[in-house]
Amino acid sequence: MPVPPLADPAVRRVAFLRARVGLGDLLCWVPALRALRRARPDVRTTVITWAETAPVLARFSRYIDELLPFSGYPGIPDRPPDRAGLARLLSAAAERHFDLVLQAYGDRVAANEACERIGRSAGARVGGFAAAGFPGCGELYLPYPGQVHEVHRHLALLRHLGVPWHDDALEFRELPADTAAFAALARRHGLAPGRYAVLHPGASAPTRRWPPAHFAAVADELSSRGLRVVVSGLAAERNLARDVVRHSRCRPVDLTGVTTLGALAALLRNAALLVSNDTGAAHLAAATGTPSVTLFMAGDPVRWAYRHDRHRAVRAGVACSPCPHLSCPIDLRCAHELSVGAVLGEVLDLLG
């Protein structure tokens, strides 16, 4: 490219198609958005994504100027496409006259097709990740880098388009209401900063959930070493949390479904440790600087693990892991083969 587009001062209006709702997906994208804002504070950044991500994206308003609701698109599996919504999206893109539309969704041809269509409506150049099998990719495309951590995948795309980056740290902005909500929980349950550990037994897919009895064994060991134990999760994960509590001797504090996202961030920031499945809480711990041990069954640690003095990853030692299945077609051997002893070894080493 003679002049990479994001280094071209004529490029001022940029749209990203990032139709992901997972907390981890969004947090891992923030370092790239931060790099863009630092390099090009004059660029107006629009994110095309699901409307319900607005409360999370609002925490990063210093990097994002606008959310444009995504309509879905044939071949993008997150939910059925909305034809009327697509017409509204294309009309909104035309009104905004984007200079550049980028596919930041992932390795899916349908996402490239959606970006091309949005770009034509806006009269914009189009690029971003090129999914395997997508024809006619030009110089504005980067072949989707499969075996790369999610953070560095997006940073690589920005570098390809002319934006340097200098750090890959995750971040999460807490609000005064988050601090107040945590303080109320801490008073109610006697949680002293640095004197409790958080267990997060939930995950969106069954293949990423370690058995509750195993979490309970970790809870009892942490309790025996003088730490209060807190169980966190979404309201839909209450049954998982109850199973952890039921199998535990130490009577953990169950905050499942009680904390807002911001209060959970404050809870983690003040915790001695998080033990979590491969899910959003693990990325939130990376963003808040909380020491963490993340458990990988079906998930891919190459893509999602943080390897640092404060973060450990424990992987199931089975041949079929990682795998793409949301529900295991055989016997969920990855969850059963990941032993309590292996997890506790990392937990206790991290606690010193």
Helix-strand layout with pairing:
Layout lengths: L12 E5 L5 H17 L4 E6 L4 H4 L8 E4 L13 H14 L3 E4 L5 H14 L2 E6 L10 E3 L6 H11 L15 H14 L6 E5 L11 H13 L3 E4 L6 H10 L5 E2 L6 H9 L3 E5 L2 H9 L3 E5 L4 H4 L6 E5 L17 H5 L2 H12 L1
What does this structure look like?
This protein is of the alpha/beta class and 352 residues long. It is 39% helix and 15% strand. The chain is built from 13 helices and twelve strands. The strands form two sheets. Strands 3-2-1-4-5-6 form a six-stranded parallel sheet. It has a six-stranded parallel sheet with strand order 9-8-7-10-11-12, sandwiched between helices. The mean pLDDT is 95.
Task: Jot down its keywords.
6-stranded parallel sheet; 39% helix; 13 helices; 352 residues; alpha/beta
Give a short summary of the structure.
This protein is of the alpha/beta class and 352 residues long.
Low-confidence stretches: none
Can you count the beta strands? 12
Q: Report the total helices.
A: 13
Oligomer classification: single chain
Percent of residues in helices: 25-40%
Beta percentage is 15-25%
Shape from CA axes?
A: globular
What Rg, in angstroms, do the CA atoms define?
21 Å
Global structural class: alpha/beta
Mean pLDDT: 95
Helix-strand string: EHEHEHEHEEHHEHEHEHEHEHEHH
- Main pleated-sheet profile: 6 strands, parallel
* CA(first)-CA(last) distance: 50 Å
For the biggest β-sheet, the strand order reads: 3-2-1-4-5-6
